[in-house]
Design goal:
The protein is of the alpha/beta class. About 35% of the residues lie in helices and about 10% in strands. The strands form two sheets. Strands 3-9-8-7-4-5-6 form a seven-stranded mixed beta sheet, with helices on both faces.
């Protein structure tokens, strides 16, 4: 854009904090600078309590941009984990490292994460250099303790990156590329597959394919139904309650009929109209920036099959994480595992869903991608131009979940009346649909009265995942 976004001040801020984006691996960001309200501060229950916003960060150079090799077929090391990420030897001797990490928070100085070594066979040398310099850049730029590290979303990413170091994820040997949360993911997937509401959603979808709607309005209504299903699937976040799957069992009720009063905003019609419009300018494509595995990823796959099987789009691109950062993050190997679990189901409709997805993959219509940026401690307006260019090929980009949303809006305390379009439209490369259940103290696009009503109904409305928003931003 020719000029930065100037949305004004947030409540309680002393002024706008300029964000100067450093290059990612030598490649400039899609947006060079943004003026925005002060950085989001955490709730009192969180261990990190930033005391002040960071000053503007100077630009830094980096190596050539590249993608890390993603081993989608890498199996986690064996062992009986039973939902405990430390069982079965996966964490090896990591207990001492965990205790040491715990002792650092919140006052110790930030230290660089363990460097990835190309000779360990996990990625190409150029990608290892980029990955290491990116984390070194972020850590060195803070130059202090955990309490001063902002924005909070990047500090959380740093914490989980350090946890992977404790598990030996980036080391050669038996723990190499072993997902420490595999047991919890398996439990959540099992719970999701047994959900009656999910089974009914799949049955409705397969029945719709067998007897396609005659009128476009009916197809649009079905698309809206599965967008809502995909939205409420976002409640299944293991990071909310990492040691059990109770929240996933609640999220498995993916029917939207009993959740309408908790849907604070629904702008999905704009996205539906865009997808349903007569094709001009080539084949249509939808990109989905994934969030969680389990019930949410299953709902993502249902939506993907609906779009492809009804020939509403020519391709769907799923953007997955390269490593398991936020516990239930959807990775390429999780997509493969979820489709395999669907295929192994005794339910005929679910098996048909799996067959459809496998066919889409073989035909090149369902594409799984991963990029270093998705787990880099960056805000979305620091997206490399090459990635922005790739997303710009999409007819619509669906951004899933709270962590992605926080990065999208800079993890800042915007006034609730701020429009999402005012923040992202000048620089986001494609029409955008954000599907999000609220799990952080950020809400945009609401009236003061709507926010007050939600607060009266539930004082924890911003953080407990029970309220949701669907926000559409057309191309500028």
């Amino acid at each position: 854009p020719s000029r930065p976004v100037r949305p004004g001040r947030a409540r309680g801020s002393r002024g706008a904090a300029a964000v100067l984006a450093a290059p990612l691996c030598g490649e400039g960001p899609v947006l060079g600078g943004v003026e925005a309200p002060q950085l989001l501060r955490p709730a009192g229950a969180l261990p990190l309590a930033p005391a002040r916003p960071l000053p503007p960060e100077p630009g830094r150079s980096g190596p050539d941009q590249g993608l890390r090799e993603v081993h989608a077929d890498q199996e986690a090391p064996g062992g009986d984990r039973e939902g405990d990420p430390r069982a079965g030897g996966l964490w090896g001797g990591g207990e001492a490292a965990l205790r040491m990490l715990e002792s650092e928070i919140p006052e110790a100085q930030l230290t660089r994460p363990t460097e990835v070594k190309a000779e360990d066979g996990q990625c190409h040398a150029s990608d290892a250099a980029c990955f290491n310099k990116e984390w070194a850049r972020w850590t060195d730029a803070r130059g202090g303790s955990w309490t001063g590290a902002l924005p909070l979303i990047s500090t959380e990413m740093y914490l989980y990156r350090r946890l992977l170091d404790c598990t030996g994820y980036f080391k050669a040997g038996s723990t190499s590329l072993g997902d420490p949360y595999e047991g919890q993911k398996a439990d959540s997937l099992k719970s999701a597959l047994s959900s009656k509401a999910f089974q009914e959603a799949v049955a409705e979808h397969i029945e719709c394919l067998a007897s396609p709607p005659v009128f476009n309005a009916m197809v649009g209504a079905k698309l809206h139904r599965f967008l809502l299903t995909d939205l409420w699937g976002n409640q299944g976040d293991l990071a909310l309650s990492p040691m059990h799957v109770g929240n996933v069992e609640v999220a498995a009720s993916v029917s939207h009929t009993d959740k309408e009063e908790h849907l604070l905003q629904d702008e999905s019609q704009g996205a539906i109209d865009l997808i349903m419009a007569p094709g001009r300018g080539g084949p249509k494509r939808v990109d989905i920036i994934l969030d969680n595995s389990g019930i949410e990823l299953l709902c993502d796959l249902v939506l993907s099959d609906f779009l492809l099987s009804h020939k509403l789009v020519a391709s769907v691109h799923l953007h997955a994480k390269g490593e398991p950062l936020f516990i239930s993050d959807a990775m390429p190997k999780d997509i493969a595992g979820h489709i395999a679990a669907l295929e192994a189901s005794g339910d005929a409709a679910i098996k048909q869903l799996a067959a459809n997805l496998q066919r889409h993959i073989e035909e090149g219509a369902l594409v799984v991608e991963s990029h270093m940026f998705w787990t880099a401690p960056r805000l979305f307006w620091e997206m490399p131009r090459s990635l922005a260019s790739e997303l710009g090929k999409a007819t619509l980009v669906i951004v899933k979940g709270d962590a992605n949303y926080r990065r999208l809006v800079g993890d800042r305390t915007w006034p609730v009346t701020t429009l999402l379009s005012d923040i992202v439209q000048p620089w986001f490369p494609a029409p955008l649909l954000a599907l999000r259940t609220l799990k952080a103290e950020i809400a945009l696009g609401l009236t003061v009265a709507k926010a007050a009503a939600a607060e009266k109904k539930d004082p924890e409305w911003m953080v407990n995942g029970q309220f949701a928003q669907i926000q559409f931003v057309p191309r500028r």
